[in-house]
Design brief:
The radius of gyration is 21 Å and the shape is globular. The chain has 347 residues and is α+β, with helices and mostly antiparallel strands. It contains 9 helices and 17 strands. A hairpin with an 8-residue loop joins strand 3 and strand 4. The chain has 2 domains: 188 residues, ph1033 like domains (ph1033 like fold, Roll); 151 residues, Restriction Endonuclease, CATH 3.40.91.
Length: 347
Amino acid sequence: MQRGHVFVVNEETLATHLKYMFVGTTAGDKDNNIGLLSDMVRVKKDDLIFFYIEGRGSKRGRFFGVFKALEDTVYHCTGANALQPNLPLKLIYRKRISPHRVYPKGVLEWIALDKLPTYAKELLWSLIYRKMKGGRGNTMLLPWETERLIGLIQSENHGVSLENEHFTFDKETYEIVVGNGTAAHEHGSPTEVILDSIGKTETHLQAFLVQGLKPFSNDFLPEIFGRNIIWIGNEVFAGSGMQKIDILTIEKTDDISYMHRLVEIKLGSAGDASSQLEYYINWAREDIGGHLIGARDFNVKPVLVVLVEEFDSIPQDTVDQIANLRTISTEPEIYELNFQGRKNRVL
């Protein structure tokens, strides 16, 4: 299974991204945004990177690829430095990339998103939801969406990629072309979400948790998120409403089996976690018309994680409600985390 991410650029900035080999996200004039940072720490070393140029005037939007994340590290750039090198807007969180297999032509947005495929499961729902919900500078793709986008780009280019390591963007032809070289640039300071910040908002907690996850050999809370993780998502769009799954991981449990963990995180109180998780289960299960290919009642696991000041503070009725989800999923679980990073399993 492939892990892929789409970054929004424009025809002016794509050449800069290609010359200096980085991706970034913006919060307007702000120097910090925990939601953007949470999205960026989700991108792990060797994950696939795509660029998306939004349509403008007579030029139609399209997707370009394929690149790779060079490392796990996220760089934080602030103030005037976030406008370098020669950017029209501040890119405060950045990640270095490298060429993987780069194709000159981008696949048109209408082909990727609007042209109806043979089966509904072939639609790029993550990107469709992103567009419906007001945009997202760094959007993850589900594994089969990544494979489909690669296939569309390859078809557009008849399978012929550029045989080079240096690239730029030609605004006239609207294609990636061979460049004169790759330039070095200081993209800011390495940054991370610290344990002391996790109680500020649920997004801080989410960012801290996603940051700690490692593909394939995860040793960060593996009982909650899985050990042999092959896919990581945060703020995963779950339908055309406002629902988003806080964290979703797919773990390969053996040669032919997978576990899909739907993780809802809360600060202090569990709130309406049971109804949210029930919705996510129904959205996910492919056998009842859901969106995760291969997801069934026996391999979809709902998990509630609550950040608490004191252990054993979750009401029993909440525990019972989560436990009842076993009728539509497998082995629901509840964990408490405290501000020192210790955990307590409740269910």
